[in-house]
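During the reporting period the student researcher (J.K.) took over the structure-prediction task from the postdoctoral fellow and processed the backlog of single-chain submissions. One of the processed entries is reproduced below for the supervisory committee.
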Amino acid sequence: MPKNIEREAVVKLEDLPNIGKAGAADLRCIGIHRPDQLVGKSPFEMYDALCAKTGARHDPCVIDVFISVVRFMEGAPALPWWSYTAERKRLLKSG
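J.K. obtained the following structure tokens:
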């Protein structure tokens, strides 16, 4: 379950729901150092950038996490990352 946090209290990446040390490191790897930098980002492009930067194909669940934090910073409620799995699968299938 995501951290119960108010959006206004989110100062560092680790304050985001569904983000711990590893997730924050992934975001920093692709040039995101502050939560407000997530607004307007494409979670799919973020995932592609992470895979390209690290030279490895990451678990597609990382996309779900990226969707969750982008949506949260854009005003959606904090939801567990797996709430976005079906949407990711549908979008990848149609894309």
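The committee noted the following: The chain has a mean pLDDT of 93.
J.K. will present the remaining backlog at the next meeting.
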